[in-house]
Amino acid sequence: MRIDVITIFPGYLAPLREALLGRAISAGLVDLAVHDLRTWTRDVHQAVDDAPYGGGPGMVMRPQVWGEALDAVLALDERPARIVVPTPAGRPFTQATAQAWSGDERLLFTCGRYEGIDQRVVDDARRRDLTVDEVSIGDYVLVGGEVAVLVMVEAVVRLLPGVLGNPASAEQDSFSDGLLEGPAFTRPEVWRGLAVPDVLRSGNHAKIARWRRDRALERTAERRPDLLAALPEDALDDADRAF
Ligand SMILES: COc1cc(COC(=O)c2cn[nH]c2)cc(-c2cccnc2)c1
Asked: Is position 115 annotated as part of the catalytic site?
């Protein structure tokens, strides 16, 4: 997978070259290229923003600079790219999104700052039949899209074959069965007077699986009833309902 990121703060993306993601890049599982948006400015001040039409607070990122940057970066590779715009106004980015994008050949992230990017940049790309996804990583406002890109790249790249040492861990992700993960424990058996639940040391794998499922259902019902309500009819068996 090729990943391009266009930003006015390339340094913000440095963490992508650390640890797991860094190893995925060194192993050639991911090609990462970070581009400074100001490369495509033409004025001495390298202006990337201007006042919003219609008034209102803050500034908007100029279409000319973004248009030239997108065209230039797209042209660097003939593989079709999914253009991703992180924004509070986007569709929710979920594990399902990460799963879907992990099959893409190329992702191109555009990091907006200020109040956002002139809408015509997205409109122009879409009318050229480019895939443009405006997505939100959560209902809060960040100063720029860079942090959202770190989140999304990590969620996607960890799903690529060969990236995680233990692929089972991605398959048994939280949300993979639509429920939250239950509690996890490791040694010692007793820590500060708190013991590991006996069932987990019983060696009875059926009982352990049942206990884990019950804890996941309990936690999901308590913290994310919306996820429980969204489960397909056949997702819960009689034992689940009994819980
Ligand atoms: C592209 O347009 C953007 C992008 C961003 C950065 O992304 C996020 O904040 C985000 C992404 N998922 N959840 C939040 C922020 C603004 C923005 C800032 C101030 C007021 N209004 C909007 C605009």
From this structure: yes
